[in-house]
Model the fold of this input.
Amino acid sequence: MHKIISIVRNRFLLITGILIVSQMLIQAAAPATWIWYPGDYEIWLGNKMNNRRTERGAFFPPFWKIDSHYVVVEFSKELDLSEPEEIEINVEGTYNIKLDGKLQFGMPDKFLLPAGKHQLNIKVWNQSAPPAIFVNGRTVKSDDSWRVTFEDKEWIDESGKASDTSATTYYRAGSGGFHSIDALPSAYRLAVTPLDVQTKELVNGGELYDFGRETIGFLQFEKLSGNGNMLIYYGESREEALDSAYCETLDKFSVNNGRVTDESVGLTYSITDSFTLENSKAFRYVYITKDEGVEYNGVSMLYEYKPEVYRGSFRSSDEELNRIWDVSAYTMHLTTREFFIDGIKRDRWVWSGDAYQSYLMNYYIFFDSQTVKNTIWLLGGKDPVTSHINTIMDYTFYWFMSIYDYYLFSGDRQFIAQIYPRMQSLMAYVLGRTNENGMVEGLAGDWVFVDWADGYMDKKGELSFEQVLFCRSLETMSLCAGLNDNEEDQAKYDRLAKELKEKLIPAFWSKDQQALVHNRLNNVQQPQITRYANMFAVFYDYLAPAQKQSVKQSVLLNDTIMKITTPYMRFYELEALCELGEHDLVMQEMKDYWGGMIGEGATSFWEKYNPEDRGAAHLAMYGRPYGKSLCHSWGASPIYLIGKYYLGIQPVKAGYGEFSIKPHLGGLKWMEGSVPTPEGEIKIRMDQKRISVTASAGAGYLYFSSKSTPKTTEGKIEKTDEGGYRIWIEAGEEVVVSYQF
Amino acid sequence: MHKIISIVRNRFLLITGILIVSQMLIQAAAPATWIWYPGDYEIWLGNKMNNRRTERGAFFPPFWKIDSHYVVVEFSKELDLSEPEEIEINVEGTYNIKLDGKLQFGMPDKFLLPAGKHQLNIKVWNQSAPPAIFVNGRTVKSDDSWRVTFEDKEWIDESGKASDTSATTYYRAGSGGFHSIDALPSAYRLAVTPLDVQTKELVNGGELYDFGRETIGFLQFEKLSGNGNMLIYYGESREEALDSAYCETLDKFSVNNGRVTDESVGLTYSITDSFTLENSKAFRYVYITKDEGVEYNGVSMLYEYKPEVYRGSFRSSDEELNRIWDVSAYTMHLTTREFFIDGIKRDRWVWSGDAYQSYLMNYYIFFDSQTVKNTIWLLGGKDPVTSHINTIMDYTFYWFMSIYDYYLFSGDRQFIAQIYPRMQSLMAYVLGRTNENGMVEGLAGDWVFVDWADGYMDKKGELSFEQVLFCRSLETMSLCAGLNDNEEDQAKYDRLAKELKEKLIPAFWSKDQQALVHNRLNNVQQPQITRYANMFAVFYDYLAPAQKQSVKQSVLLNDTIMKITTPYMRFYELEALCELGEHDLVMQEMKDYWGGMIGEGATSFWEKYNPEDRGAAHLAMYGRPYGKSLCHSWGASPIYLIGKYYLGIQPVKAGYGEFSIKPHLGGLKWMEGSVPTPEGEIKIRMDQKRISVTASAGAGYLYFSSKSTPKTTEGKIEKTDEGGYRIWIEAGEEVVVSYQF
Done:
């Protein structure tokens, strides 16, 4: 039996081997791609994203430093050609070509490279969009093996020759999947598809349109004509759309004999058969009032979206949970745009803390690595670092952690190499702001956020929460330095992390309260306990086992501790409870909390939800009646919780080279689903008698418990030290285990 | 008599007083001006300037880091209005308006401000050109009293209100003399005026056009028609224009039935009656070859220039010297463009060492403060500092010195306040690269330039020249810190300057050679003596009087020391000799050296001139037959030498609040001239019997010597300790002194 299994395994290993070889062949013939200075395109595109927000017709950019691309950049490639080769060239910008240091005439779109060893350089100037090049020949193709610099330190020296110096700072070029010579990166747009109104209603002389669920895109008017003004009020809720004085977004148009003027930007357009608005808005409802002279035949919209494959999936015996997963997936898709943004109505900005959760959810549904990288580049910004990311101290720390996470899920080591200089800059900024204890506290200009809370939270002094994130960030620096073979940095950050970790628990652990206190002022523990540091310390394993159990009782399951009312921090709270084995409890919490939003009519998940609120109070935030975002990425965390803690799948080695599967029914009769991996997916089905698993790549253990001796058709079940069982899973085989629930 | 003079003086004081009062009134009603983040427009415009260079049809940008503007900037002004006031608004970019923190609808071009105390904010995003605003109301006008930030650290806090923090970094807005609401700063262009060909000649089947002297601008073809190719070869010399294989700049056009394509950029234009080329070129000669099918009626050009008033003037009994002054002035005018550039053919770049001399010449002819400030901003760049300015160590030091010089000549203290943060950044970079002696030496990536020399010059180790400039830069930092009331920095840089100065002369002074040696390697003096450090140490007064006299003999007047062959370093060499009283010698040197270039046919002064070269060797440089620039700003130094050391005029206190006049005939029979000051000019005429002086503002001493007791019509002549005479000059009075030569 074992032998047969081995044969089966070998067959799959063979297939895997063929896949790897064919992948290598594909890589050798990898297509040319548009390349740029690493991060430049992402930062430039991010400026477009972040500057798309409006509030009641006013342009509303972010309030942190907005970086920009290097406007002059040089690309370089060493060539060794067996025969002459003509290359096609396209460039975003004004450019020159140097062959072996000699400038060539003009800006040719074709160029004949001679045989032999040569150095090809292309230098580009572009003020308004990132300098980018596309080169395509039989063997010479622009890709991330090209070098790039913004200051090549080359000059005509005394001898009259061009010379390079060792001080030249070259990086590998950045790229982002643009493989056509005509697909200019600066022309990139999301996809659109038409969407119809579900219902129309006349209210107070205006027309209220309902698109059936939360959506985003460009409103369209068919056969718009006549003369007069038209006002459009958008609502994520019916209440918001109908409240012309307080709705968060609106448009004003004046229609005039075949022309329409957008009053907020002062631009006039000619009306063709249908008129599509220039700026996207997020809404479910649209309320339109107009002068009598204005006419149109109908309203529809172009739904704007990032094309994504739903590689992760989930179904179970619980229809409410299935609905929670579906609404989470839709929320996630709406907020997955050029970047992972916070919310589609507001802020439409890239926030590091929000994005950090999007990355983790993304690994369990789209596995869209490009958008992860885009977002990390944008948030990393450019030197000099003059404030925390988004001005928020905690958001800087999430950024560090997101990078190693990305490596763990994707195995993409080249990205770690490219982003590492940004990590060094950001960490130097952080280390330059520590106090005499080597801890961080909010200095002038720092926003110490933690969470939106419906109660008092002190932000002064040393917050235990910030130290936990800081410590984890130092550990991340050390890990990434190691991946880059930077032993000096690896040792330095390892030492700093250890020093901080040694101080951390003694500094904040209260024996009386059996929990980490919220903060210290002048080295004195303050009495408040909050959930934040405690739950992070649980899943970062910073607490001793007994302390973890204490925290569970004294904090996590203690209703007198200030409750969390954002899905944002519920993410970590429920994660901590899962780490403590409270799967049944967390399942009920998910159903209550996210199910509660659905019960309130949510078609996407919200920025904040307090089950104790009633009616329109659910819509208010920031002192504004419709200030709350009803489609907020951090609302989608069930995707992550279900994938990681119920389907139970996570990477153990980078890129799922090794995985672990620890499924938990959490009270369900059955569940089934899949989790994407870089090279395929892991599928699992579990009921109270059987678990079946298939992984298309990688290998790893399936862990489970059973009241009686389990059986399997393939492989060998081992007992674990913890009293459970495990079985090793190889790629390609379906393993079915029979067990007793 | 004395009393009468006093009355006369009081009359002028009265007039001066009225002028001051009226100037204040004018300032109160100062016009609105376009404003931007300080330095942003200058850096953006500088990118256009620096990227205008071509070499044989190839785009040729600089090889140092090219900075860019902040793409999102917020402007702010505190208002206190007695009545409501409507403002006109124009903005370069997408913008919003906030009144007292509340966003206003749209992007209005008119806005009604309510009476009372209010805060007006305008936030602008512009990726391709610097965010800039123009606001004009009855009393509210955009000017440099507005604040500006690129990271206002404002956010919606927990209470839901917008809040400012003390960490907000605001600066006073930058401006540049754009006073019309329609004069978009990004649309700025130099002036043009038509210029005709002087002679036309047929050579080898092509046409050679001579414009009579060095010029710059856009070639024009009248009634260009037909079909075929046209090649245009530009020459600063006849030889260059006729050498199609080696001329430095050229154009290729193809003409096709009413359209013409620029082959270097691939752009096609429709031909109207006359066709003007898109890119300016520098030339005296143009050689054109074309296919038979191409026809045109005539060639002319649009001369492109910065409008300047020739406020400085000079005439003397020596016609050759007058011609030298005129050609210097023309050279200076050609290279005074949006910025002070090095040369109009090449590099067309802004180089700090070159610009430093242009500033000093400029003070004696145009007194164009705007172009000085533009150039200093551009060179100062943006954080982070990643290399020396233009990559050249010495060029960073000239930049520091240029700033205090500008203050001394202009009295513009606000500029010192605005640029000081850049000075701190640059000096931090320099101090981060000093060795264990606190001295600078060339590290990886540093270009240690000093000068182009026709002989060996060691660039390794500690160069005395670089330490002299470094020391002077530290002194400048201390002075500017003091002007900004930054006592901490003032003391710090003063201490650093003193520490370096104490080491300087002992480290490099050779008792044997009675001069500063060129360099030290591993703390050991090397034997070579060059002129550079020695001449700077003379006019910076770093040497004891006896040492100065030694240096004069052992170095400056010693023909065995490697000769200087660039006007660039001749500038300082002759300045040092003037400081040592060698006016007659320097006059002869000027006539020989610059007169020598005129003798070779120069219509503008050159980048380099070795009188020992013959024929076309004068045109070659950098290993290229026409590599040399024949119109190079550093060639124009006679303007400075004559103004400062013969007319003898210089500021003693900032902005010519006090001046000194020490005229020297230097062998001339007579001379007369004027030197501009911020508020007017100082005129002087001197022959061998009389000196007459008038200053329209400020006051100061006229110093002179006389073999017998001098006489004057006004004022009191005093004897000086040095055995000469002096007389105090007040603004507005003409003082005439009779003396014996």
Q: What stands out?
A: The CA atoms of residues 236 and 451 of chain A lie 23 Å apart. Residues 1-27, 154-168 of chain A have pLDDT under 50 and may be disordered. The first helix of chain A runs from residue 2 to 28.
